[in-house]
Design brief:
Keywords: Membrane, Transmembrane, Transmembrane helix. It holds the Pfam family ENOD93. It comes from Cicer arietinum (Chickpea). By secondary structure, the chain is an all-alpha fold. The protein folds into two domains: about 15-60; about 65-100. The protein is about 90% helix and about 0% strand. The chain contains four helices and no strands. Helix 2 packs antiparallel against helix 4. The protein is rod-shaped and about 75 Å long.
Length: about 110
Amino acid sequence: MANRNVAANSPLERASLASLDQRLAVAKRCSHEGVMAGAKAAVVATIATAIPTFASVRMLPWAKANLNHTAQALIISTVAGAAYFIVADKTVLATARKNSFNRPSNA
């Protein structure tokens, strides 16, 4: 039992725990950047989709007859959701790739 406590406090294990904490912090920052970029893209996509959708419903007879409020909301929210997930995924992958190449040396 005593050997197990000594091994838990060894410098090698403390270094690996510090490395694990550092990697966790980098992962949190990476995911936060992805969320923020995705949210910005979703806002832009919402505005870019809402304007033509609402304009077409007012001006085009087919759209006026066939696109009720639910359909309009579905069109806009689908585009916003897709923009969010695409941009967030690309941002997380790009940040992770950048961080994997820029690892600090342990020497």
